[in-house]
């Protein structure tokens, strides 16, 4: 909450549109989806347990300002990429004044998984792709940048993930790519460059 833009707790989640005409195997699972959704709440014990206290991102108005609603039926995706989204996290890199989003596309949930990283000046966007990591891990999931592991200048961080839970599934041989990837908590030191 230290860097909350307005004192609210923000949550990010992935999902899929039930009217999707390009459905894929396990279209909306723990690691696959088509969209990313954003919601927020004023953090109190009572509010965190009361769905009516939450506000849901409902798109942008004609001036490009985020619209928030308490009506879940009016929720809109923050981002969408059909059959290429899944588990999502956001971390604020305070020294760089950037939000970093990590998205994992889990394929068919037991495949080589692609991870991509986006950045934005604001939680509601515009989000820009900064890196696409094909078959990262090769099965990296729950990819994130813990804010406590970002350097004082914001240029070095530790990427945390787990991976490679199905290394020999259906004849598919999963490799440790990058080295050190395994089924457990993995930390990889990275450098953010402009």
Are there runs of 5+ residues with pLDDT below 50, and where?
none
Task: Figure out the total of helices.
Answer: 1
Shape: globular
Helix content: under 10%
Summary, kept brief:
This protein has one helix and 14 strands; from the N terminus they run E-E-H-E-E-E-E-E-E-E-E-E-E-E-E. It has one helix at 45-48, and strands at 9-15, 33-41, 55-60, 66-69, 79-85, 88-93, 98-105, 114-120, 128-133, 141-144, 156-162, 168-169, 172-173, 186-191. The longest helix is centred in the first third of the chain and has 4 residues, at 45-48.
Structural features, described:
With 194 residues, the chain is an all-beta fold. It has one domain. 2% of the residues lie in helices and 42% in strands. The protein is built from one helix and 14 strands. The strands form four sheets. Strands 1, 2, 3, 4 and 5 form a five-stranded antiparallel beta sheet that branches. The chain has a four-stranded antiparallel beta sheet with strand order 6-7-8-9, with no helix packed on it. Strands 10-11-14 form a three-stranded antiparallel beta sheet, with no helix packed on it. The longest helix has 4 residues, at 45-48. The mean pLDDT is 93.
What are the SSEs and their pairings?
Elements lengths: L8 E7 L17 E9 L3 H4 L6 E6 L5 E4 L9 E7 L2 E6 L4 E8 L8 E7 L7 E6 L7 E4 L11 E7 L5 E2 L2 E2 L12 E6 L3
Antiparallel strand pairs: 1-2, 2-3, 2-5, 3-4, 6-7, 7-8, 8-9, 10-11, 11-14, 12-13
Which properties best describe this structure?
194 residues, mainly beta, 4-stranded antiparallel sheet, 1 helix, 2% helix, 42% strand, globular
């Amino acid at each position: 909450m230290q860097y909350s833009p307005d004192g609210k707790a923000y949550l990010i989640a992935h999902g899929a549109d039930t009217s999707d005409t390009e459905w894929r195997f396990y279209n909306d699972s723990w690691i696959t989806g088509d969209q990313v959704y954003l919601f927020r709440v004023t953090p109190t014990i009572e509010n965190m347990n009361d769905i009516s206290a939450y506000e849901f991102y409902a798109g942008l108005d004609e001036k490009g300002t985020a619209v928030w609603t308490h009506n879940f039926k009016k929720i809109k995706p923050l981002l969408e990429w059909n059959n290429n989204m899944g588990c999502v996290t956001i971390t604020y890199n305070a020294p760089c004044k950037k939000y970093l989003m990590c998205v994992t596309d889990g394929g068919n949930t037991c495949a080589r998984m692609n991870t991509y990283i986006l950045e934005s000046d604001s939680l509601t966007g515009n989000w820009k792709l900064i890196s696409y990591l094909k078959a990262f891990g090769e099965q990296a999931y729950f990819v994130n940048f813990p804010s406590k592991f970002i350097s004082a200048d914001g240029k070095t961080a530790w990427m945390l993930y787990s991976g490679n839970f199905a290394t020999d599934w259906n004849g598919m041989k999963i490799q440790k790519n990058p080295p050190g990837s395994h089924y457990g908590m993995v930390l990889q030191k990275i450098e953010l460059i402009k």
